[in-house]
Design a protein that fits this description.
The structure holds 2 protein chains of 2 kinds. The two termini of chain A are 34 Å apart. Chain A is of the alpha+beta class. In chain A, 21% of the residues lie in helices and 18% in strands. Chain A contains 7 helices and 10 strands. In chain A, a hairpin with a 5-residue loop joins strand 4 and strand 5. Chain B is an all-alpha fold. Chain B has a domain of 301 residues: Formate dehydrogenase/DMSO reductase fold, CATH 1.20.1630. Chain B contains 18 helices and no strands. The longest helix of chain B is centred in the middle third of the chain and has 34 residues. The chains are: A alpha+beta, B mainly alpha. At the A-B interface, strand 2, helix 3, helix 4 and strand 6 of A face helix 6 and helix 7 of B.
Chain lengths: 227, 444
């Protein structure tokens, strides 16, 4: 069984936000206007968190790309009253959009605040309608959404492997953000395979996880910079 | 024991609100209906456009509606719990106040539940809670315990109503058929009385643990998450204490209104307000104790993630709310309730209104600041409730008052048979009881 995980090398990340753009295009993320954005209604499945350390003049700003952590013990799943969010055996945390009642308990319980809510019906300019990704369902108003590690790509890869009558390889499946990263700062693969790149990197000295002490056991591993 | 066609005598005034309805009633009724319609319009707007019409955002996902949910469920502890405790303690002064307390419980619960439903992004899917229940979620514990509480407190309201419904049936007013059905053939026999007392006593005992569980579980919605200043073991008792606190305050306000409007000065006397005032004073101090413990623990531990929220409440952008809460929950009611001179109906009314406002703000101060400070860096958004949220809140309060008013027009708001029983039987009973307490007065 695969255990999908991601490694983000902060030494290589240039903060260019290509991952965010790729994610928006891939996952049909609604476009929120500037006014609503100012109110905090933007939806990002991956975004760059600004970490400001120290005080002037010894100040240092870092940007940290943050997708869903796909925790082994997710705080969001326990609290859902209708079981609309789950972690599957491959370690992916998913949402059943058609079952979500929009109570936003998961959004408040997630310590990483990765979950977004559809405050309005999603809208796209007419010109963009044709470029929506047909593999990803559109979330209506009133439901919660978040990064799925591009789960639809896994389904597609598995179908392809089946058609070619072979086992699914880790290389067959890669999320849009990892694929798009121009500085090769992101890696994706099977954490259960001890020889996979992500597995080797996750055991590196620079490896750390966000809010590790909460016991959520994220499957997104960061490699700290400047060491 | 009362015979079937007993004379109302002195208690005729208790039936007057049912028999006669004045102009003020209709005026109030229509203004309340106007507010409710306005709120309904606001909600329809929200239903159609989405929750974006509220002031909520990321990361402040919960606001006025969840505050209202906790607040209204809290108010519901007025009734049944207070009434059950007073009944079990055989406090004789309870007789004229239990009914008005029990009605609050049953009616206000609907607005607690209603607020959480109005907070849903997809209210059309609310039945998923029954179809796909996920028992691990504290919200589902709420669903369970609130349903049990609503059922139990409805039964607990209805049982002591039966003899009074029978009185209404026998006194030939309007809606005879209605009272006939709900009087369940009550004729006031010894056996019926015995069964009724047994039923009431059983429900009174049952309803106390249920009521405690309800607000404990409401607190668990917050305490079970690992969010800073929510993840606290004290939350269960803290919420129950706050609930009883605001519940008694709501009861005192309701009693003041009933007393004035229906001229029941003889039934709701200064002594009732004095006694409830003492109870409210105890809860004021208990509330302070819990609040003090909660914040001192946070402060002494000094974990940065908790302290950010702590300082936001003490000196930061939530300081007006926090200190407002402290003013309304403690500083205003404490001196009023401390002296018997000010523990008058009017004095306790002022203290109670202050407590109700303070407890609403308290719920707000628990819900919002924690959400405004997630563990990871986030956009600093401020939460200001919009007119939609305020309208819905006003609508809920108005709807509650409306239902309460209508109740008083169909049932006596002071329990007639219990007052009569107190007058006729309990004098002797209390004397007997005292004899069993002390030596030397066994013989009359």
């Amino acid at each position: 069984m695969h255990k999908w995980g991601m490694v983000i090398d902060l030494d290589r990340c240039s903060g260019c936000q290509t991952c965010m753009a790729a994610c928006h295009a891939e996952n049909n993320i609604a476009i929120i206007g500037p006014e609503e954005s100012a109110m905090g209604r933007t939806i990002h499945w991956i975004e760059l968190l600004p970490y400001i350390e120290g005080e002037y003049p010894h100040i240092k700003a870092r940007l940290l790309p943050r997708p869903c952590m796909h925790c082994e013990h997710p705080a969001c799943i326990k609290v859902c009253p209708v079981g609309a969010t789950y972690v599957n055996e491959e370690g992916l945390v998913g949402i059943v959009y058609s079952r979500c009642i929009g109570c936003r308990y998961c959004t408040t319980a997630c310590p990483y605040t990765v979950r977004s809510f559809n405050w309005y019906e999603p809208r796209w300019p007419k010109e963009m309608k044709g470029s929506l990704n047909r593999d990803v369902s559109i979330r209506g108003k009133g439901v919660v959404e978040k990064c799925s590690f591009c789960h639809h790509r896994l389904l597609k890869a598995r179908e392809r492997a089946k058609a070619e009558k072979r086992e699914l390889l880790s290389e067959d499946y890669i999320p849009a953000c990892v694929q798009a990263c121009p500085s090769n700062a992101m890696y994706f693969g099977d954490l259960n395979d001890p020889f996979s790149t992500v597995s080797i990197l996750s055991r590196e000295r620079r490896a750390f996880k966000l809010l590790e002490d909460l016991g959520t056991e994220p499957k997104v591993i960061y490699l700290s910079e400047g060491m | 024991m009362d015979e079937k066609g007993f004379k109302l005598g002195d208690d005729a005034i208790l039936l007057q609100p049912i028999q006669r309805t004045g102009k003020t009633f209709y005026l109030t009724l229509f203004s309340l209906i106007a507010v409710i319609l306005w709120a309904a319009g606001a909600y329809i707007y929200q239903y159609r456009d989405g929750l974006g019409v509220t002031g909520l955002s990321r990361p402040i996902y919960w606001g006025v509606y969840i505050t209202n949910f906790v607040f209204f469920i809290g108010i519901s502890h007025a009734g049944t719990l207070i009434s059950a405790i007073l009944r079990l303690a055989k406090a004789e002064w309870r007789r004229s106040i239990t009914r008005s307390a029990e009605v609050i419980t049953v009616l206000v619960l609907f607005f607690g539940v209603g607020n959480i439903l109005m907070d849903l992004g997809r209210p059309d899917r609310m039945l998923n809670i029954l179809q796909y229940p996920h028992l691990q979620s504290p919200l589902l514990w709420d669903v369970l315990s609130i349903s049990v509480y609503l059922t139990a407190s409805s039964v607990y309201l209805y049982l002591p109503l039966i003899p009074d419904i029978a009185i209404l049936r026998d006194h030939g007013g309007r809606y005879q058929w209605f009272y006939r059905i709900f009087a369940l053939g009550w004729s006031g026999t010894e056996r019926q009385h015995h069964l009724l007392e047994r039923g009431i006593a059983f429900m009174a005992i049952l309803v106390i643990p249920v009521a405690v569980s309800v607000h404990t579980v409401v607190s668990f919605v917050f305490a079970m998450t690992i969010q800073p200043m929510w993840h606290s073991a004290i939350f269960g008792p803290y919420f129950v204490c706050g609930a009883i606190f605001s519940g008694i305050a709501a009861l005192i306000v309701a009693m003041n209104l009933i007393r004035k409007v229906y001229h029941l000065e003889d039934y709701l006397r200064p002594v009732h307000f004095n006694n409830l005032g003492i109870l409210l004073l105890v809860m004021t101090l208990l509330w302070f104790y819990f609040t003090f413990t909660e914040y001192l623990t946070t402060f002494y531990g000094g974990e940065p993630i908790h302290m950010t929220i702590f300082w936001m409440k003490f000196t930061g952008k939530f300081a007006p709310y926090f200190w407002g809460m402290f003013l309304f929950c403690f500083i205003i009611p404490l001196p009023i309730l401390s002296f018997s001179k000010t523990r008058t109906p009017f004095g306790t009314l002022i203290a109670s209104i202050s407590v109700i406002i303070g407890m609403w703000v308290e719920r707000f101060v628990i819900v919002v600041p924690t959400l405004a400070n997630p563990r990871l860096p986030n956009e600093a958004v401020l939460y200001f409730p919009t007119w939609v949220e305020w309208s819905v809140f006003a609508g809920c309060v108005s709807f509650f008052i409306l239902l309460y008013m209508i109740f008083t027009k169909f049932f006596p708001i002071v329990s007639i048979w219990e007052v009569r029983e107190g007058r006729e039987k309990s004098m002797a009973e209390v004397q007997e009881r005292i004899k069993t307490y002390l030596p030397g007065i066994g013989v009359e």
